[in-house]
Amino acid sequence: MASDPRSLEAEAELVNPLGYHVSLAKPDYLLGSVRCALAGRATALMVFLGSPRTTRLPEADSLKCPEAFGLWEEKGRERRNLVVHFPYIINPSSPDPQSRMRAQQAIRAELQLMEECGLSLCCLHPGSSLNGDRLALAQQGFLELAPIFAEFPGIRIGIENMAGKGSEVGVGLMEIKLLLEAVPLPNVGLCLDTCHLWDSGFPVDDVPLLERTVAETIGLDKLFLIHLNDSVHPRGSHRDRHANLGKGCIGFRPLCAIVASPAFRSVPKILETPEAAGASTHAHEVELLRKGAGL
After folding, report:
1. What is the pTM of this model?
2. Cis peptide before 27, with omega less than 30 degrees from 0?
3. Which range of residues forms the domain containing residue 36?
4. How many domains does the chain have?
5. Which alpha helices (DSSP H) does 16-164 contain, by range?
6. pLDDT (tens digit, 9 = 90+) per residue, 187-240?
7. What angle do CA 163, 169, 175 make, to 5 degrees?
8. What's 46's domain CATH number?
């Protein structure tokens, strides 16, 4: 008996998790986020547990995680593809020891809340050195984070590569490699942002080169998450402005090739592309990517 093409299509979508950032808001919190993602046929999603501009967090009981997990898994999705983005204001690479301590406290609080809720994948910006020595401060900051990360072996922590705006650290894959060497733990790896990597100077549109470079520099087993974004600006601009898929300088076909890549197939891919006021483009972009990748 021939296989149902619709079943094969659904299986391909689940094996290759693809989704987008959604809001987490009262009254349904994560349950509402899951409903939004499911409405767009996403098989992965990303949220902030609190405001991205503060370190205040809600109580675990208010987030409706059991109901969210139940609905997500009822629709055939995997809990491991639910992603938490840590707040932007956390700066673990600050030259000020007190600021680094506050960042460490905020990171521990996020990880504790994730553990309490049963969430297991997150991403973190590595921060900024301000007026200090970029690489020295970044390595020091992550050496100080190592014992905190070690407390949560069940949570995978993706350190996001940055575009190189201002005094950002973790610019490009070689700098991420240095940070990971400071935290040699199996649960700490890479969150690959395509816009950031392009803006830092890497030719993301050469997908075979991207595959080889990630494998040789970081290791495919250490690639935990992909932020799939086009870039407004030319390669090497260090600007960090995301564009909608195919509307920027990377182009639609390379981003589809990343989705289709066997090397990246099982890695959750999250869109952080712009949305027009009052309208969601993410579900449409997910559908375009699936068609472009042959899923």
Report:
1. 0.95
2. yes
3. 5-293
4. 1
5. 29-39, 65-74, 97-117, 134-150
6. 999 999 999 999 999 999 999 999 999 999 999 999 999 999 999 999 999 999
7. 90
8. 3.20.20.150
